[in-house]
Amino acid sequence: MESQSSHLESRSDNYQAMMDFLPYSRHSVLIYSQRLDGRTFDTNEFSMIIRKLISEHRHINIRILLFDVDSVIKHGHRLIELARRSSSNISIRIVARQYRTNISAFMVFDTCRLIYRKNAERFEGIADKENKKYALELTDYFNEVWEASQEDPNFRRLHI
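-> structure tokens emitted (160 positions)
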């Protein structure tokens, strides 16, 4: 199938692509991020879609790989709180040191739709509605990093 790629230039382009792709996810969402940008991942709209996905698709698997956890924990984040409450659907790990040279950011939705930025600090990138080949390459890389990475104990829910 032919690629249906569009160029992203701004934070708002990235956010819109993510919000367009998320509702169609049924099985998995992979997020590879330096840090969970608050203006992208810490919004009511994003949280509501994630909650809806979890309630409508009980077996959906949302996995997040992060570089920087300190700011997320220090300032609070809706997605972190949601992950603590929905640990069977949302998992977060800290990128292992040997993979920290990869400064990209990407999301893969059901191994077919993707958002990719070569440099996580910049918003230029691509959104592709149907690029299974590249989505599978990113998924394989994500899985490799996932296996080498560990959960941060700060993400676990405290039961008192």
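The chain has one domain: 5-155.
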